[in-house]
């Protein structure tokens, strides 16, 4: 039997080429994901710095100023400190639940970013059920908090976990009803389609003007979902020591705060997408080509402009959320549940019925 060495070399080179193509494809697939994670991490660091500076301004005191210029590296210094701190475990607690709880809280919120369109050409996954995927995935986070409280084998922690679960369930229902109203109004559950539906008339095409009641309910519910003041009952120090994170230390303790700020950022992004027109500029489309000639510029520049507009609207809402935290007092648990079940739920149901009726009459 005669073996053609040239053919064997061609087959080997072809197999190497195919392997390189597969490796290149995997790397190219991971680049958007890693870029999104890096951007989210920088966004969280900026939010922490903004909250400290804004709270210092409201309370007429000096904020962080030593770690970097204007204290901009203070959040990075705190995270580095938490990484190197000792990781303590409760002696009689459930170690697996205790360790998995913070990870579930962070990962479930990170998955929500996959359906957020930062620009017309910059979305990780444009799904037909994008907004409902966000609601479904973010509903897993309270399970992680409940696991953390139960795994600590501490009654204070367990009570804090139960409070977090009860609060999340109470405010997820009005939140979902508001999102359903927006989906009916836009005839789609895709985040990209919802933004495109608001782009026709610029500022006046925003869902904010067509759904003002839903916007207020969504605003309150999103603050409660993020456990921000005046809805931070799961972490009320006066009643529960420190809630579900009483037994935590080191980086696991820090993961709860990372999850809180991630949730705040994703909620602000969804406010921008659902109610504030997303990446679209606020000037009506008929005037945009004459003023800015955005339709004639390259795709990269257009994407950059879209990202800038999205982040500007997002951080405007973040400023409102941070100011609210340092302005209003904390509610009692009965007041919080009454607000969710007796007020926001009927109002969001009525808003959904009105939206459905108007959509049926317009057919």
Features:
68% helix; globular; 2 domains; mainly alpha; 363 residues; single chain; 14 helices
Describe what you observe in this structure.
Its main location: membrane. NDH is composed of at least 16 different subunits, 5 of which are encoded in the nucleus. Pfam families: NADHdh. The chain has about 375 residues and is an all-alpha fold. It has two domains: about 10-85; about 90-360, no CATH class. Helices cover about 70% and strands about 0% of the residues. It is built from 14 helices and no strands. Helix 1 packs across helix 11 (about 250-275) and helix 11 packs across helix 13. The longest helix is centred in the first third of the chain and has 54 residues, at about 5-60. It is globular, with a radius of gyration of 24 Å. The termini are far apart.
Quickly give the structural class: mainly alpha
User: How much of the residues is beta strand, in percent?
Assistant: under 5%
The largest sheet is: none
Low-confidence stretches: none
On the 0 to 100 scale, the average pLDDT is: 82
Provide the succession of SSEs. Answer: HHHHHHHHHHHHHH
Number of separate structural domains: 2
- The N- and C-terminal alpha carbons lie at a distance of 77 Å
Counting DSSP E segments of at least 2 residues, the number of strands comes to 0
Percentage of residues in helical conformation: 55-70%
Number of helices: 14
- C-alpha-based Rg, rounded: 24 Å
Shape assignment: globular
């Amino acid at each position: 039997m005669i073996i053609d060495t040239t053919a064997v070399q061609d087959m080997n080179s072809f197999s190497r080429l195919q392997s390189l193509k597969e490796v290149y494809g995997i790397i190219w697939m991971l680049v958007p994901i890693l870029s999104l994670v890096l951007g989210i991490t920088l966004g969280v660091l900026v939010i922490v710095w903004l909250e400290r500076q804004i709270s210092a301004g409201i309370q007429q005191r000096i904020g962080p100023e030593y770690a970097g210029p204007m204290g901009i590296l203070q959040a990075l210094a705190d995270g580095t400190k938490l990484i190197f701190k000792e990781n303590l475990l409760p002696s009689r607690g459930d170690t697996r639940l205790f360790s998995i709880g913070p990870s579930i809280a962070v990962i479930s919120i990170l998955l929500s970013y996959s359906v957020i369109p930062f620009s017309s050409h910059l979305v990780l996954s444009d799904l037909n059920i994008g907004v409902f995927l966000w609601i479904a995935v973010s509903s897993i986070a309270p399970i992680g908090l409940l696991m953390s409280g139960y795994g600590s084998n501490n009654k204070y922690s367990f009570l804090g976990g139960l409070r977090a679960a009860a609060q999340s369930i109470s405010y997820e229902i009005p939140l979902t009803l508001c999102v359903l109203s927006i989906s009916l109004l836009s005839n789609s559950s895709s985040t990209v389609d919802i933004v495109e539906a608001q782009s026709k008339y610029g500022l006046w095409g925003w869902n904010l003007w067509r759904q003002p009641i839903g916007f207020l309910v969504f605003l309150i519910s999103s603050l409660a979902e993020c456990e921000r003041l005046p809805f931070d009952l799961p972490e009320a120090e006066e009643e529960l020591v420190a809630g579900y994170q009483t037994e935590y230390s080191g980086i696991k303790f820090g993961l709860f705060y990372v999850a809180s700020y991630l949730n705040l950022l994703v909620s602000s992004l969804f406010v921008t997408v659902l109610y504030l027109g997303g990446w679209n500029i606020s000037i009506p489309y008929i005037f945009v080509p004459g003023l800015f000639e955005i339709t004639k510029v390259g795709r990269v520049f257009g994407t950059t402009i879209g990202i800038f507009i999205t982040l500007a609207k997002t951080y405007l809402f973040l400023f409102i959320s941070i100011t609210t935290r340092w302005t209003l007092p904390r509610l009692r648990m009965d007041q919080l549940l009454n607000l969710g079940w007796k007020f926001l739920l009927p109002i969001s149901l009525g808003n959904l019925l009105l939206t459905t009726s108007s959509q049926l009459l317009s057919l």
